[in-house]
Amino acid sequence: MPGISSDLLLTCGWPRVTKFILSACAATVAEMVTFPLDLTKTRLQIQGEAAIKQHGPGGGPQMAYRGMMGTALGIVREEGPLKLWQGATPAVYRHIVYSGVRMVTYEQFRDVLGRSEDDTFPLWKAAIGGMLAGAVGQFMASPTDLVKVQMQMEGRRRLEGKPPRVHGVYQAVLKIISEGGIRGLWAGWVPNVQRAALVNLGDLTTYDTVKHILLRNTSLQDNSLCHGLASTCSGLVAATMGTPADVIKTRIMNQPRDMNGRGVLYTSSIDCLIQSVKGEGFISLYKGFLPTWMRMAPWSMTFWLSFEQIRKTMGISSF
Questions:
Q1: Whether the Cβ atoms of residue 254 and residue 46 lie closer than 8 Å to each other
Q2: Does 45 or 280 have the greater pLDDT score?
């Protein structure tokens, strides 16, 4: 809101609106910087599924992509460098909703419960708050996540000679609604929410906890170094906890649907989990872990550094 200071927003009773806007700005910066890694991760997660559908477990030709660098270079070589940002628009839309809601929810949860007498926020409270915030934020943003995943796969579909399913965000939304109704926009919301709860258990909980441990027990000040160390820890924990749910979420959201909007490959997240492990082994649940972590680490660091700096610039207390 140009020309309106944060003090005015806060005194007018809009602290949540202010924090929502700041969270959305920081998330947009982080998303655009790291989006190519998200596209790479999605392609890696989908390719094993495609081979099984065509040739059955253990069969089929060599995978099109081998590893994160091979996938990224293949996309640049076959589709062009700008395709590394295919699906970035709905991804930004998603994070405006997702990150804005999760950050406001977590802070509200923390304020309601309050810190202990020694000014600490117990780990169990932070864990509950992180999971709750992630689940609420992701449920609200689930339609944009569905559009993002489908748009990310369009470049690969064209190379395989398949007709494009979507040509843009608006057309993708209309197509999803025409096939599955309004409910179709929330296809795959269960694994989506499960994944977000686990990721935020790792991200929000770890960042908040590690940051305040560093401030209490070391000589570090509440500055970029402290924020960078805490965000590095949060990115690693979030990737470790969230990758299996991310694989399942991506496969459920990318599967074709029948006339009633039901998936034709998997009946539930449990069914997808069983089929993936049975067809490709347990390690398939960590397919794309490296690009997931290599994306979450810089994403987390970019987000938290930006978020804390924006709050400081706007005169709002540190997270």
A1: yes
A2: 280
Coil, helix or strand for 263?
A: strand
Three-state secondary-structure class, residue 261: coil
CA 91 to CA 77: how far, in whole Å? Answer: 23
Query: Quick one: how far is CA 269 from the chain centroid?
Result: 17
pLDDT digits (tens, 9 = 90+) for 62-94: 445 567 788 888 888 888 888 888 778 877 888
pLDDT at 163: 77
Q: Which residues pair with 257 in a beta bridge?
A: 263
Measured CA to CA, the distance from residue 46 to residue 31 in angstroms comes to 21
Res 308 pLDDT > 90? yes
Give the whole-angstrom CA distance, residue 291 versus residue 250: 14
Helix axes 123-152, 169-180, angle to 10 degrees: 100
Q: Which amino acid is at 145?
A: D
